[in-house]
Design a protein that fits this description.
The complex is a heterodimer.
Chain A lengths: L1 H30 L4 H19 L1 H19 L11 H50 L6 H13 L3 E6 L4 E6 L5 H10 L3 E3 L4 E8 L2 E9 L5 H65 L4 H33 L6 E4 H11 L9 E4 L6 E4 L1 H17 L7 E7 L3 E8 L32 H10 L4 E7 L3 E9 L5
Parallel strand pairs in A: 7-9
Antiparallel strand pairs in A: 1-2, 1-5, 3-4, 4-5, 6-8, 9-10, 10-12, 11-12
Helix pairs in contact in A: 1-2, 1-3, 2-3, 2-4, 3-4, 4-5, 4-7, 5-7, 7-8, 8-11, 9-10, 10-11
Chain B lengths: L6 E5 L3 H13 L3 E5 L2 H10 L4 E5 L6 H12 L4 E6 L4 H9 L4 E4 L4 H16 L4 H4 E4 L2 E4 L4 E4 L2 E3 L3 H12 L4 E3 H8 L8 H15 L9 E4 L3 E4 L4
Parallel strand pairs in B: 1-2, 1-3, 3-4, 4-5
Antiparallel strand pairs in B: 6-7, 7-8, 8-9, 10-12, 11-12
Helix pairs in contact in B: 2-3, 7-9
The chains are: A alpha+beta, B alpha/beta.
């Protein structure tokens, strides 16, 4: 505001000075006996000068002053403001009219050229700004850098923005307190200009969607210019986000490859020695001449080597499940395939002959990744075989509900208390009641749960001391039963 | 006691496993040679007579898979059994495609390995053409020319497709046959992807041949790969 006052005051000073100059010029012209024909262009020149330098109103003042001087110094009677002839009166009137009109035209041209200049300046500033933003290192705090660049380059008091995707607030300069205002503007969904405070708030849009809001403080700039700067900030934010996502995706892929390679290497370096141990132990028995106790030991060595291998397989499966979420290969799978291949997959030391599968009539299909869903069923079957009395039957059935297929795995014995029925699906959880009875890793049921979750299914357990334990695995069905 | 005979070459880069396998198999009655790489396996096979090669898939140098291809080219009748560590289908299918007759996943039970070796040696020694006439495995007998199948001397009635499927499985008893191979052998070259057919026919066959179709003893499923007619149920 003060700035405007200063500017308009200086304008009037210029106008007053030019008016005084007009008066002085007139006096000199009279002294030198210069005629009215030469004086009029001189006065016109002064009015145009005033218009160019000090604006239209100043030009009007100068024009009036010139007319007064003409009437005083050059029309009869001289040295009086009285004008006798109509001719002189007409001449004075047309002088003042032409002078004011030309001043107005000059003013228009002047204003137009000023606008052009301002636009050019804005454009070059936007260009510079976008260049500086693009050149910034996007890896090291690009958001802060963005604020600072805009503030410095546009000479603002403060710049701040709210990134609604990341829910973060960034600012530079005098704008630490604008967060709430920005969130409110974003909620209202509207830009906002406060010329009295030289503050502009703009929504950051990418496409049609607002992705945040920005405030510029101490900006005496056109609202359109501020909108352009906001658009620049928005597109840069999205650019940084896209770059980050790309780098992240790349690094996920690389670490996934690395993990698979490491795990495969590990599996190989564990399984070959385990094979040697198992083969050597049964080789000992094959050679003969062992006492029954020695034979027993050799068999134990062989069995334990194989059970270490099963644990290794289970760990590999867990880690594969952790990474497979992205790439579930679903197709229509028949329940018969699922049951049959699950039984074939059971570890050989378990007696899979105890399992009695009962299928639904007809061919029921589910939309699933066979390999992954099978992990779940194999784990439930393995669990049932391990934690039930030796040689007791394990039944596996399928039932068709409205939208889903329910597979049950039932075994006798091994009561699971109500408070443990959730916990057993947690990774590494080992029930204190079964811990000493059978070996286990605490991985099996967590694998089953995870594999089922990935199919938008669920797994739960019911258990009673009299009826035994039943696991229910539910998955959405792929077609009619 | 089953008699173990046969000449086996072990190609395995892990020295400890190679030695223990070799001594154990010798103790059990097999004649055994051993090499550490695929290249040496090819050399050894050129100079000595073997009936079966146990080929580790993960070996330095040319590697097991390439060795498998070369061995199959040079010795069409030799039985190749690959040793793998991974329990996924990929390398097993690749190995079967490369000409392997069978695979076994580490670690394995010695009993299982010797049973597989015995059935491979038996296949190797079966004269060409005899397979066409008749086969008896366990309680199942198939007479190819008459298109008749017997279980414990009682005739079992099969449809022509069921018969063809059983015949090819029994002619390759003990050997895993891929879905693709079974489909093309029974239905024709233009088939190969229709696993659904196979599944239906296999469950019908099991119903007719097995005592308990839910727990097959002869017609076993090889996950990911296909089916196998067990030669020593």
């Amino acid at each position: 505001m003060l700035f405007y006052m200063k500017q308009s005051a200086s304008r009037w000073i210029v106008a007053a000075m030019i008016s005084a100059a007009t008066l002085a010029t007139s006096a000199v012209a009279v002294r030198l006996h210069i005629g009215v024909a030469a004086a009029i262009p001189g006065f016109m020149l002064l009015a145009l000068l005033a218009s160019w330098k000090a604006g239209f109103l100043a030009a009007v003042v100068v024009s009036v002053a010139s007319t007064v001087c003409l009437a005083y110094f050059f029309t009869e009677p001289k040295f009086s403001l009285t004008v006798y002839s109509y001719q002189d009166l007409l001449a004075l009137a047309s002088f003042v009219a032409v002078s004011v009109f030309v001043s107005h035209l000059v003013q228009r041209i002047r204003a137009y050229s000023l606008t052009l200049e301002a636009k050019e300046r804005d454009q070059s500033e936007l260009f510079q700004l976008s260049q500086n933003i693009l050149l910034a290192d996007w890896k090291s705090g690009p958001e802060e850098h963005l604020c600072l660049t805009v503030q410095k380059q546009l000479g603002l008091q403060g710049v701040a923005f709210w990134d609604s995707k990341a829910s973060r607030y960034w600012f530079s300069g005098d704008a630490a307190d604008a967060e709430e205002g920005l969130i409110a503007s974003l909620r209202a969904g509207a830009d906002c200009d406060l010329p009295t405070r030289a503050e502009h708030i703009r929504l950051l849009r990418f496409g049609a969607k607002p992705i945040g809001a920005v405030v510029f403080r101490g900006a005496h700039r056109a609202p359109l210019f501020m909108s352009a700067v906001a658009a620049l900030i928005a597109s840069n934010l999205e650019r940084v986000r896209a770059m980050r996502a790309e780098v992240l995706a790349e690094s996920v892929a690389v670490s996934e490859q690395l993990r698979t390679a490491v795990l495969d290497g590990l599996a190989h370096s564990v399984k070959t020695p385990l094979t040697t141990i198992a083969v050597s132990a049964s080789g000992l028995i094959g050679i003969g001449n062992l006492s029954s106790l020695q034979q027993g030991f050799a068999r134990t060595i062989e069995e334990q080597a194989l059970s270490i291998s099963e644990v290794t397989n289970k760990l590999l499966r867990t880690s594969r499940l952790d990474s497979q979420e992205i790439a579930l290969r679903r197709r229509l799978v028949s329940l018969q395939d699922l049951f049959e291949s699950s039984i074939a997959e059971l570890p050989r030391q378990l007696n899979s002959g105890r399992i009695t599968p009962t299928l639904l009539q007809g061919s029921v299909k589910i939309l699933a990744d066979l390999e992954v869903l099978r992990m779940a069923l194999v784990q439930l079957m393995e669990n049932a075989l391990t934690y039930s009395p030796a040689d007791s039957p394990v039944s596996v059935t399928a039932m068709c509900a409205e939208n889903e297929i329910e597979i049950t795995v039932h075994n006798e014995g091994t009561f699971i208390p109500a408070e443990e029925r959730q916990l057993i699906f947690e990774r590494y959880y080992r029930s204190p009641s079964t811990g000493h009875k059978a070996p286990g890793t605490g991985l099996g049921l967590s694998i089953a749960k995870r594999a089922t979750d990935m199919h938008q299914g669920s797994v739960r357990v019911e258990s009673s001391r009299e009826l035994g334990t039943t696991f229910f695995l539910t998955v959405p069905k792929g077609g009619p039963c | 006691m089953l008699t173990n005979e046969g000449v086996v070459l072990i190609a395995e880069d892990d020295a400890a496993l190679r030695h223990s396998l070799s001594s154990t198999l010798q103790t059990l009655g097999f004649k055994v040679g051993e090499v550490a790489t695929g290249e040496y396996a090819l050399l050894e096979l050129r100079h000595e007579h073997y009936e079966l090669v146990l080929l580790d898939l993960n070996m330095p140098g040319m590697g097991g898979l390439a060795a498998c291809k070369r061995i199959r080219e040079q010795h069409p009748k030799l039985q190749i059994m690959v040793l793998t560590v991974r329990d996924t289908e990929d390398d097993k299918v690749l190995a079967l495609d490369a000409g392997a007759d069978d695979y076994i996943t580490k670690p394995f039970l010695l009993m299982e390995l010797t049973a597989r070796i015995r059935s491979a040696v038996r296949r190797m020694r079966t004269p060409e053409g005899s397979a066409l006439r008749s086969r008896q495995v366990g309680e199942i007998r198939v007479e190819a020319e008459q298109h008749r199948v017997f279980k414990r001397d009682t005739e079992v009635h099969l449809t022509p497709k069921e018969f063809d499927l059983l015949l090819i499985l029994m002619q390759n008893a003990g050997k895993p046959l891929s879905h693709h191979k079974l489909l093309t052998a029974v239905w024709g070259e233009e088939y190969g992807g229709e696993r659904e057919y196979l599944r239906t026919y296999m469950s019908q066959l099991r119903r007719k041949i097995e005592d308990d179709p839910a727990k097959p003893v002869y017609l076993t499923t090889e996950n990911y790969i296909g089916y196998r007619f067990k030669s020593e149920p």
